[in-house]
């Protein structure tokens, strides 16, 4: 769509003849149209990008042999067409707004439930049991290192003790040193994930997003954080990570992928109906941008969640 310039279009017709005095009601309708379209544009294009109607600069030529219509009649017909287009556009905006609002409400409520679960005892114990290093997450109950159940209460020193084999595995992961500190920080988290050292990868990836929230790699790191949780068998925490990536960085390079993985996590949590809503959002937002491979994965996700066609 192109820039809407109602005043230019309509004044061009008015200038064709002495119509102004005869068309005060039309002038009022034009003014009303301009105001309504401005309001619609502000809703659809909040950054000020304007649009143009798909109509010509003048009325259709009169058929040969028939008397030409009057300037007022031509102007009236064009105003009628503009009003009709405005009604259609307004309806589309309202439909789109309602769809997005419903999804935001559903996912927002689910996000709140999951974040409440983060602070609960069972998840906290599960999350901390395998952690080798302290997590910088804001909820200590979730990330504080805790050992698995044992016959004796561990001391503070033993709670953070790393198994020698795991320590060796961590040491075997090469720390990149390319001279680009930001890229190296992400790469190290990625290498820890590749080595299946998920708790350590989670720590580094959360640190990266917290320290470089506006960097291009932030979307990659947040998505990989969700993958690390999911691969460790923690779909509830994974769903929070994926949802945060889509919600906070919808234009990030991994936002569409996070929406797909969010559907997978929800399916694992037996929230198939929510997963189907997520896949529908993927189709609405990313269907024309996503790769064929990702769209094929989403299609399989829909099948697994038994989404309606």
Short overview:
By secondary structure, this protein is mostly helical.
Low-confidence stretches: 1-22, 52-60, 120-159
Give me the strand/helix succession. HHHHHHHHHHHHHH
What gyration radius follows from the Cα positions, in whole Å? 29 Å
Number of strands: 0
CATH second-level architecture of the largest domain: Alpha Horseshoe
Q: Quick one: biggest sheet?
A: none
Q: Do you know the CATH topology of the largest domain?
A: Serine Threonine Protein Phosphatase 5, Tetratricopeptide repeat
CATH class placement of the largest domain: Mainly Alpha
The averaged pLDDT comes out at 74
By secondary-structure content and strand pairing, the structural class works out as mainly alpha
Question: What would you say this structure looks like, in words?
Answer:
Helix 9 packs antiparallel against helix 10 and helix 11 packs antiparallel against helix 12. The radius of gyration is 29 Å and the shape is elongated. It folds into 2 domains: 81 residues, no CATH class; 144 residues, Alpha Horseshoe (Serine Threonine Protein Phosphatase 5, Tetratricopeptide repeat), CATH 1.25.40.10. The N terminus is likely disordered. It has 14 helices and no strands. The chain is mostly helical and 309 residues long.
